Every structure is written in structure tokens, then in C-alpha cells.
Amino acid sequence: MQxxxxxxxxxxxxxxxxxxxxxxxLARIETGPSNLTxxxxxxxxxxxxxxxxxLPSPPDVISAxxxxxxxxxxxxxxxxxxxxxxPKARIIVETDAHMAYVGALGLxxxxxxxxxxxxxxxxxxxxxxxxxxxxxxxxFGDEGGGYWIGREAIRTALAFREDGRESNFPxxxxxxxxxxxIEDVIPxxxxxxxxxxxxxxxxxxxxxxxxxxxxxxxxxAAAGQLKRLIDRGIxxxxxxxxxxxxxxxxxxxxxxxxxxxxxFEPPEASPEQGAIAWARQHPPDRVQVHxxxxx
Length: 295
Fold this sequence. Notes:
Layout: E1 4-9, E2 14-19, E3 25-31, H1 36-52, E4 61-66, H2 72-85, E5 90-95, H3 96-105, E6 110-115, E7 119-124, E8 130-134, H4 146-163, H5 169-176, H6 185-191, H7 196-200, H8 202-208, H9 215-237, E9 244-247, H10 254-260, H11 271-281
Parallel strand pairs: 1-4, 4-5, 6-9
Antiparallel strand pairs: 1-2, 2-3, 6-7, 7-8
């Protein structure tokens, strides 16, 4: 019996799914974020190690999609970590976006909208060429993603404090981050006590209170950014009828979906299942990286 481990590693969490030859689930594990860009090499490695040590047995094949694997350096980081932790396994490393696409639409033409901590659109034309928009990480892109939303919430809270406006919003955001005052975000960020995943977690706080302001305005602005991203993918496809699926905690949230106003078809399978399907379609002893990262 050959076991295959599919991994979906993003900016908020890392999901591990191990199956046997009959696709019977042997283990499903969730650990912390493994996005190299967001949390660094040490935390990325730790999230992967935390998952592998919980498996019932070492996998024969590891097929992994990671946010942060879109560059040669990033791909090498993940391959090195996996080789070190599972030296007998055959390994495939791809981007999280690629595995999400394979899970959602297989290799059929269409668009997959991916949004969690970050956001991007990846697509495949009828000619078999692939493309992506967005997914450039928390510092240079990902407008409308979870980190962007959290950052806007912090900015708004700080502006409220500056203006002396009567509102519990600054205190609500500070408390959500585990801080005594909203002004404490600056030293917390400087020391690393506040990081990208934690800022992105504010998205859930805003959706929980929707349609309360000012959070509703921030979410509406995010939805506008995300819709423009999706529209770029639709324009690239040049088709009036194109398959569009959505993956990720933000992309599948009912509040965000309602604000975007686009009908998405359900994904055929999860990203980690897509990773397993990809391993079975391609030789597992090589690295083939499809650029783009998001969640």
C-alpha cells in the first residue's frame, strides 16, 4: 500500500491529508501558518513539522502546495524542509494556488478565486495556458485579502483615536489583538508580538459584527478590490460563460460572497485533495513550480 500526503500551506493554517491507495482517509491534521513570506522560515518549518509528527506513519509520497513556493528560493525552502523531515518520501512542491486550482476545477478551463490571508485569481484557458492576477504578498499586494482588511481596521481605529471620536471601535480592535490600547500596535509589530496572521484574524471580528460600521465599510471596500481582481481574470478568459470557483476562508465567507455579488460554483475538491490528485497524475520525484501564492 502506498500512502500519499497532500498538504495545503497558507498564511493562516496548514492542512495535512493522508490517504491510501483506495483514497481512504488515514489522517487529517491542521497546524499553524506556513507561508514563508508572512511568518519566516522558522515558523514555516515548525508548522510543517507539527503536522508530520502527528501522522500515524511516514507517507510514501508528499504532494504539497505552499503559499511562498512561487519563487525558486521558496520552493527550495519547502523541499529542503520536507526532505529533512521525511527523507524516505518522494516529494512534489507546488504553489498553494496551483493545488487549489487542481482541486477546484481539475485541469478544465476556468478561474479559481482564492482568498484568505492573501488573495489572487488563477486561471487556465482552453488552450491549456495558465495565468494569475494578484497574490503578491502582504507587503506589495493582496488588496482586499484578510491581512489587508485587518490592516485597514487598525488604521481606522488609530484614526478614530486621533480624532477623539466617541466609539468603542478602537478598544474593540485592540482587545481583539490582545492589546491594552490600540496605540500598542506599533511596539507589538516591532517586537513580533503582532504578525500577519494575527492582523488577518481581525477579518472575522468585522464579519461577526456586519453590518455595523465602520467595519462594514472596510469589508465593502475589500469586496470591491476582490471583484476587480476576479473581473481581470474574466477579461483574460474572454468568454461570457466561464467556470468560476472560490477557495479559502475569505472567498467562501457568506458576507464577502454577498458583497462581491458573483455566483461561484462549488470546488470539486479541497486544495489538499487537489495536491493528492496532482501527485497521482505526475511523477512524484520532481519539483515543478507553478508561480503564484495566496492564502
